[in-house]
Amino acid sequence: MQALEQLAPPPSLGLSTSSSTASVSGAILGSTLRALDAALQARDICTHTHCQRVIYYSLTLGRIMGLSEDELVTLERGVFLHDIGKIHMPDSVLLKPGLLSDTERTVMQQHPSIGYEMLRHNPLLTDAAEIVLTHHERYNGSGYPLGLKGDDIPLGARICAITDTFDAITSIRPYRTPMSVEDACNYIQSERGCQYDPEIVDMFTALPSSQWQEVRRAASTSTALNSLFHAA
Ligand SMILES: [Fe+2]
Hints:
Elements: H1 4-7, H2 20-43, H3 45-64, H4 69-80, H5 91-94, H6 102-108, H7 111-119, H8 126-134, H9 155-170, H10 181-190, H11 198-206, H12 209-221
Helix pairs in contact: 2-3, 3-4, 3-9, 3-12, 4-8, 4-9, 7-8, 8-9, 9-10
The structure holds fe (ii) ion.
The site of fe (ii) ion has 5 residues, from loops.
């Protein structure tokens, strides 16, 4: 097991490049991501900060799993953008302080497809767009929007499914009290092979809940994420 400091993610979105052509591509991508970041921040600050924490958790988990640098870059971009489709949600749904009705939930469940449509034409974001589209799929096939099953779900989306939930259930919501980190880890374990990829759950729970508590504290206070796009 690596030390937590080694797992702590310095996000870059893979924008550091050496050749001039790659630098131009990186600059264009960086400005695109910066614009999307600003739009989400203006639209819903809660979703924005949620996405930043989920990046942190996902890169931590990705490093525990031993992902390559290229895989980490794809993961980082996909997770950063995973809820970007919520920009199109009506205020009555996106900003509702209580539980969603069935009709409102159906509207909300369109956000992966909307996000995918926003991104899929950008050749630099093809893999990230697939994570956006599939981050609410479930390992047993009961998710949405496609009902994908098992390894048909992109790896980044299978990781995001766990880290997205981890942040959601440990965060304050107007309609429920947050779970403790220990209870959240137990919940994720209980969904092993159902909602979540069993092998990735095993990697997640390989880090004790006390250490996930430390990761959560770091993700909530980190200023490193504020420099996400400065490498472009
Ligand atoms: Fe989502």
